[in-house]
Design a protein that fits this description.
- By secondary structure, this protein is an alpha/beta fold.
- It is 41% helix and 14% strand.
- The chain has a 7-stranded parallel beta sheet, sandwiched between helices.
- Helix 1 runs parallel beside helix 2.
- It comes from Dictyobacter formicarum.
- It holds the Pfam family adh_short_C2.
- Belongs to the short-chain dehydrogenases/reductases (SDR) family.
Length: 261
């Protein structure tokens, strides 16, 4: 019996990377899991099969979360299949990097529609089932980009900051319904898309992190499972950064030639 036994979870963007790792961990800890995907069908099905092979219960659902009607349909599909939802992990998102002056209305809308609209309306729909079941837990995946600035990420950072504000707001609004809302902010987590970054290497990534290594999706998953569990029953409205010390480090690095006296 896992700590999440009897719980029903929906993880969005679970076909790859962080979302996939979260879904597998929730299943490993006993939850029934619905893995949402938009384009990563093979990864979602592979993860669902892994959960089922461990003796769990997992299904896949697909849809484009930038559309409100799709958010509602996906949540309802999971609710109909499993009988409800106790845990929602809003993870599906898109990153677009470009200079501020080059941002177009189309790019802005693409990022905001998925990264904010998807989170907002999936939570709104899942809330109905959670309230009927006596409560629940919503975990929003934000980013260190919501904490501090980094070049070429103006739109992405704006969405991640909005997710943090939304998390705190929903934590207060949904507290009377016994629905806890928290956020997890990953730092540099090496996911498949990093292979497309020119000149990126793991060694370079390691050099950027105070703890000396980049993160992996499996570094995020246990924290999400904890926030979904009864062990976190008194935690709501919080942001947990999992970043190897990135947000704790001052950006200013200045060798002043200090010498011992």
């Amino acid at each position: 019996m896992g700590v999440l036994s009897g719980q029903i979870a929906l993880v969005t963007g679970a076909g790859i990377g962080i979302g996939q790792a979260i879904a597998i961990e929730l299943g490993r800890q006993g939850a029934k899991v619905a893995l949402h995907y938009a384009s990563s069908a093979a990864g979602a099905r592979e993860a669902a099969a892994e959960i089922n092979n461990l003796g769990g219960n997992a299904i896949t659902v697909t849809g484009k979360l930038g559309m409100v009607e799709e958010c509602r349909r996906i949540v309802d599909e999971v609710t109909d299949h499993f009988g409800g939802i106790d845990i929602l992990v809003n993870n599906a998102g898109v990153t677009r990097a470009d200079n501020f002056e080059n941002i177009t209305e189309e790019l802005f809308d693409d990022v905001f529609h998925l990264n904010i609209r998807g989170y907002f309306f999936c939570a709104q729909q899942a809330m109905k089932s959670m309230e009927k079941r006596g409560g629940g837990s919503i975990i929003n995946i934000t980013s260190v980009h919501g904490y501090a600035g980094f070049t070429r990420h103006s739109v992405y950072a704006a969405t991640k900051g909005a997710i943090i504000a939304l998390t705190r707001e929903l934590a207060i609004e949904l507290a009377p319904k016994h629905i806890r809302v928290n956020a997890v902010g990953p730092g540099l987590i090496e996911v498949p898309r990093y292979a497309d970054i020119p000149n990126y290497t793991t060694e370079f990534g390691n050099s950027l992190i105070p703890l000396g290594r980049v993160g992996r999706p499996k570094d995020i998953a246990p924290a999400v499972a904890f926030l979904a569990s009864d062990a976190a029953d008194f935690i709501t409205g919080q942001v947990l950064y999992i970043d190897g010390g990135t947000t704790a480090k001052m950006a200013l690095e200045w060798n002043q030639g200090d010498k011992p006296q």
